[in-house]
Amino acid sequence: MEDLGLKFRKIIYFFIALFIIALIVTIVCLLILKYEVEGEDNMPFELTQLVVVSTAEGKDIEGEKTWNFNLTQYNDIFLTISKNKNYKETEIIKKVIIENLKVEEKPIKGEIVAYMISSSRDTTYEYKDEYLIKDNLQFKGDEETNLKERTIANQGGVISFRYVNTNLRRIFIR
Questions:
Q1: What three-state secondary structure class fits 80?
Q2: What is the pLDDT of residue 80?
Q3: Which of 59, 60, 82, 159 is the most buried (most CB within 10 A)?
Q4: Percent of the chain whose pLDDT exceeds 70
């Protein structure tokens, strides 16, 4: 009889232990799911400002007697990253990666291309293949922000890139 009671207790202990393990796994999974859905709520840095400056330019294609313009639209995007005032610990920015840039709806006219700031001292943007943003745009954390070198101050700063809508329209004036 004692042998049967001991086996019964072992089975009960086994199921209690199994229930506790299943409960712990369920709680951990729910916490992971909550984090995936809501994300971090007290980040050390936050995006505090997004500014888009849009300009257009007409470039003369032909000679002096007729005006033949090719219109291009430029959209400069400036993102300001600042330290979160509610975050009490000390953190530094190691790098900022901007990725998954997508044009949701193509324009009726023109072609949209994204460019990073050029490293040339003479001009801010150069429309060469080497400055195209293909997969992502990275800014490394540094002492100070330098857009030409694609660095951002380790406590926050401004990063920038440009979308260009080319071949919008040709205007002929005679």
A1: strand
A2: 95
A3: 159
A4: 91
Contact 56, 73 (CB under 8 A): yes
Q: Which residues pair with 83 in a beta bridge?
A: 45
pLDDT at 59 over 80: no
Please list, in sequence order, all residues whose beta carbon lies within 8 angstroms of the beta carbon of residue 165, skipping any fewer than 6 positions away.
Answer: 72, 73, 74, 75, 107, 110, 111, 112
Are 87 and 42 spatial neighbours (Cβ–Cβ below 8 Å)? yes
DSSP string, 123-172: -S---SGGGB-SSEEEEEEESS-BTTTTEEETT-EEEEEEEEEE---EEE
Whole-number Å distance between alpha carbons of 73 and 85: 37
Question: Is the distance from CB of 112 to CB of 82 less than 8 angstroms?
Answer: no
Structure tokens at 91: 């953190």
* Amino acid at the residue 27: I
The pLDDT assigned to 115 comes to 93
Q: Dump pLDDT digits (tens) for 87-125.
A: 888 889 999 999 988 888 888 888 899 999 988 888 888
Is residue 137 within 8 A of residue 147, CB to CB? The reply is no
For residues 88 and 95, what is the distance between their CA atoms, to the nearest angstrom? 20
